[in-house]
Amino acid sequence: MPHGYVYVHPACSRDIARRILCIYILRGVLLPLLVQLQWQSQGHEERNEHGVGLPLFFYPFKFTMWSQWLLCVGSTMLIDNKKDRYDNGLNIVTVWDFIKTYAAIPHQQGSFDIVTGYFTLRALSKLYHEIPEEVEYRLLSSELLKDENDEKHIIDLLRGDEGIGSTFELEQYVKDAKAFLLRDTVKCKAITNAFCHAKVYLYEPNDMRLKGFFLSGSSNLTDSGLGLRPSSNVELTMGKTADRSDADYRELTNWFDEIWSVASDTLPVNREKPKGERISVKEYFIRQIDDFFRKYTPEEIYYKILF
After folding, report:
1. Which one, of 255, 268, 269, lies nearest residue 140 by Cα?
2. What pLDDT digit, counting tens, does each position of 193-243 carry?
3. Total-model pTM
4. Cβ atoms of 203 and 111 closer than 8 Å
5. If residue 238 lies in a helix (H) or strand (E), which one and from where to where?
6. Strand 200-205 and strand 186-191: pairing?
7. How far apart are CA 183 and CA 174, in angstroms?
8. Antiparallel, parallel or unpaired: β 186-191 and 136-142
């Protein structure tokens, strides 16, 4: 026998193989099937694009509570928004894929803390539509618009997408973003004494049987940062499923709490009068969006983008 090898009796190896096969069958087939049966028993029904109900065996396996708990718990991933770097069956290419896999669990309650330099309307729209409304947010950002006279900058900041066709979707994105910000479960603060260059996402489910996650790297809460559209940007973000027993997760949550405690929850209505009337950061963001889209119609924005 070659040096360094360990002999395993064939009967033992067959037993090990059977055990591994049973684990894979349980995790990959039976458990998702039981989840789908529960989903169906609660009155939910999967339908195709024509609105026709699908039989159970056609249901796509959803990452619900138990499948999320079993798949890649405690694993660390590098995400560049370009390709799936891991052969684990999760098909995570983008930062948004990661978030959706572990946070888009129907009716799952939890908290989602986000630190970003700035955000786009489409990114808020994705949170509004695809993450359960029961989730509570603490959104920490720089002031949305740094130069109110720079029209092109405002367009790029809010629009976040250079695709001409998407310009006419802005009206819906505006409605979704405002609806998201108006939720009582969404709290907003701003860093006013410096630009917020950090990008951190911290998710913690209320169900202690589940793992949360953190993401940290170069990805702002924008179309290109989340990987919602192709981009020439070089992005790299580390994501890890974890909870407060994890040292990295605990350190990041402590850091966020410190930054959140000193961030401003109000901003001046008139930037030229910093000691004048102040409004909440959330209201400030909503007013900036309203002011801009009252000033420019989608058609005008379209031509500004072209030229």
Report:
1. 255
2. 888 889 999 999 998 888 899 999 999 999 999 999 888 889 999 999 999
3. 0.72
4. yes
5. strand 237-242
6. unpaired
7. 15
8. parallel
